[in-house]
Amino acid sequence: IPKESIIDVYGCVKKSPVLIEGCQPDTVEVHAERVYIVSAALPTLPLQIEDAMRPEDDETALSRVNQDTRLDNRCIDLRTPVNQAIYRVEAGVVRFFMDYLTKANFVNIHTPKMISAASEGGANVFKVSYFSGSAYLAQSPQLYKQMAIAADFGRVFTVGAVFRAEDSNTHRHLTEFVGLDLEMAFKNHYHEVVDLIADMFVNMFKGLQRDQSRLFSAVAEEFGLNDAGFSSCMMVQMYSNSYDFYMRGEEIMSGAQRIHDPVLLTERALHHGVEIEKIKAYIDAFRYGCPPHAGGGIGLERVTMLFLGLDNIRKTSMFPRDPKRLTP
């Protein structure tokens, strides 16, 4: 029977006389009586699971699998214990993000991914044909989050795909990733938003440590895993009303207080060469009264990478997209 085949085994479960290496539980075994092949794998696999499981710092002469081979054969690579752990931790990041904000009276909204104009200044967007005209893949849900605030929702968040046409072949950039975005009206100062975001991150990371610590051992075994710890925010008063959050020395979130004055917003759009007619509905949303508000966006794959202390964002993107990869 080829390795990785799916089988049904009928037999008697008995206590093993010795501990079974690599199995959980490791004290029992099945004395097979009948074996049925449900789905047979090819006799020769493009990579072996045991090779893909070897730690990156393994200096033995045994075979190791490079990153491109892993990504080209992703469905096999994802079967390793470390990948099973990584994507369960990543699912936990989304769950804690959504749970915290839902309890804080945020509303989960869903925003368009095809838009008529670039959503963040006009550069680095994917242009696509749209019937007789053109459209762009959204760099950010920011415009629609702000319009939701103007529509009196007060606090909103959204989880969805974000597209960046950046020719960046680095360890931390993707051309498509999952964005965890939030927007919030405030009463007195934008620091109300900063404080909420900081508390959300602490709640998220402590929740992952509490609920999913058993998954960390698989990651630590292959890549090593060090606790990054927590530190308080450093507030500087003399600069713009914007903020960044960092983990292990790299940015995991950026945000700012938004412009809610339609006159100033129009002026800034013209300054950056944005066609006003294409964002008219967005600007008009602020002509009918809109509270001061701020928000920001998190890249799911990047925050998972840094939380687990990994060295490449492609390890936390199930099917990554970058300037050189569009498959599988």
UniProtKB/TrEMBL annotation:
<keyword id="KW-0963">Cytoplasm</keyword>
<keyword id="KW-0436">Ligase</keyword>
<dbReference type="InterPro" id="IPR004364">
    <property type="entry name" value="Aa-tRNA-synt_II"/>
</dbReference>
<keyword id="KW-0547">Nucleotide-binding</keyword>
<keyword id="KW-0648">Protein biosynthesis</keyword>
<dbReference type="InterPro" id="IPR012340">
    <property type="entry name" value="NA-bd_OB-fold"/>
</dbReference>
<dbReference type="InterPro" id="IPR006195">
    <property type="entry name" value="aa-tRNA-synth_II"/>
</dbReference>
<dbReference type="InterPro" id="IPR045864">
    <property type="entry name" value="aa-tRNA-synth_II/BPL/LPL"/>
</dbReference>
<dbReference type="GO" id="GO:0017101">
    <property type="term" value="C:aminoacyl-tRNA synthetase multienzyme complex"/>
</dbReference>
<dbReference type="GO" id="GO:0005524">
    <property type="term" value="F:ATP binding"/>
</dbReference>
<dbReference type="InterPro" id="IPR004523">
    <property type="entry name" value="Asp-tRNA_synthase_2"/>
</dbReference>
<protein>
    <recommendedName>
        <fullName>Aspartate--tRNA ligase, cytoplasmic</fullName>
        <ecNumber>6.1.1.12</ecNumber>
    </recommendedName>
</protein>
<comment type="similarity">
    <text>Belongs to the class-II aminoacyl-tRNA synthetase family. Type 2 subfamily.</text>
</comment>
<dbReference type="GO" id="GO:0005829">
    <property type="term" value="C:cytosol"/>
</dbReference>
<feature type="domain" description="Aminoacyl-transfer RNA synthetases class-II family profile">
    <location>
        <begin position="87"/>
        <end position="328"/>
    </location>
</feature>
<dbReference type="GO" id="GO:0006422">
    <property type="term" value="P:aspartyl-tRNA aminoacylation"/>
</dbReference>
<keyword id="KW-0030">Aminoacyl-tRNA synthetase</keyword>
<keyword id="KW-0067">ATP-binding</keyword>
<dbReference type="Pfam" id="PF00152">
    <property type="entry name" value="tRNA-synt_2"/>
</dbReference>
<dbReference type="InterPro" id="IPR002312">
    <property type="entry name" value="Asp/Asn-tRNA-synth_IIb"/>
</dbReference>
<dbReference type="GO" id="GO:0004815">
    <property type="term" value="F:aspartate-tRNA ligase activity"/>
</dbReference>
<dbReference type="GO" id="GO:0003723">
    <property type="term" value="F:RNA binding"/>
</dbReference>
